Amino acid sequence: MDILGRKRLSPLRRIGVIGLGLLTGLLAACTHTPEKMPSSQAAPAVWEEVRFPGKRVTAYEPISQGGYVGWQATAHGSASMLRKRLHIAQGVAPTLRFAWKTNALIPDAVVGMVDRDDAVTSVVVAFDGDHQGLSLKNQMLFDLAEMVTGERPPFASLIYVWGDDKAKIESVVHSPRTDRIRKIVLESGPTHLGQWREYERDVIADFKRAFGEEPGPIIALGIMTDADNTGGRAQAWYANLDLR
C-alpha cells in the first residue's frame, strides 16, 4: 500500500499492465540463458526457449517436412518464443531467409491493437544500439523489464508478421507500447493459408524503412506464435531460417 492507501502493483502485475507487446521484442536478445529445447537432428541446437513472466508457454516441436526443417508452434492462449543468439557487426548487410506456414488465422487478432495484438507467425530480428539515446519512457520500460527478468532488452526489434485481413502487406506497424518495436506485414488475411511461404529480406533496408535510422549490430533472431491477448488458438510452422 502507498501513503494514499492504494495497493502497489507487484513486478509481475506491472509487466501484465504493460503487456506482452513490450516483452516480445525486449526479451528477444536478453543475456539470460533460458531453457534449452530438447536435442533433435531436425532442430538446430542453438535455438533456445524464452518464456515471459505470467504467460502460458507456446509449444515448439522440431519438424522436417520435404525439405522444410524447423519448428511446429502450437499456442493455446499462450506466448513464448524461440531465439538464436547472433553477432553480426554494424555495417554488414545480411540477408534473412525463411519459410512459414499456417492453416488458420487467429480470430479477433489485429496487428498493432493493444488488446488484440496476437500473430500466428512472427520472425524477430533484434538489434543493439546506444541505450543512452533512449527516450525517458523507453528507459523506464527497459529498466522495468530488466528488473523483472534480470535481462537487458535489445535496443530495437524488427518483427515480420502474418497480419489480419485488414493489414496492408509491406506496411510498417508501430508497437502501441514502445517505439523500439516495429512490425512489417508480410502476409495479410487467408489467401495463402495452408501453403509454405518463402521469403528473402534485406533486414538493413527494412530496418531503415521501419525505424528511419541506421541499425546497430544484430544480436538475435527469434520466432514466436502467440495467442495470449485474444485467448485463442494458433498453429504455425517455421523452416529454413537463416540470417547471414
Tell me what the structure shows.
The strands form two sheets. This protein has a seven-stranded mixed beta sheet with strand order 1-4-11-6-7-9-8. The chain has a five-stranded antiparallel beta sheet with strand order 2-3-12-5-10. Residues 1-19 and 38-45 have low confidence and may be disordered. It has four helices and twelve strands, in the order H-H-E-E-E-E-E-E-H-E-E-E-E-H-E-E. A hairpin with a 2-residue loop joins strand 2 and strand 3. 42% of the residues are buried. It has helices spanning 11-18, 20-26, 136-149, 203-211; strands spanning 48-51, 59-65, 68-76, 79-88, 95-102, 119-127, 156-163, 172-174, 181-188, 197-202, 218-226, 233-243. The chain has one domain (11-243): Sandwich (Jelly Rolls), CATH 2.60.120. Helix content is 16%, strand content 38%. The protein is α+β, with helices and mostly antiparallel strands and 244 residues long.
Mind telling me which CATH architecture this is? Sandwich
Mean pLDDT: 86
Describe the largest sheet.
7 strands, mixed
CATH class: Mainly Beta
What's the number of domains?
A: 1
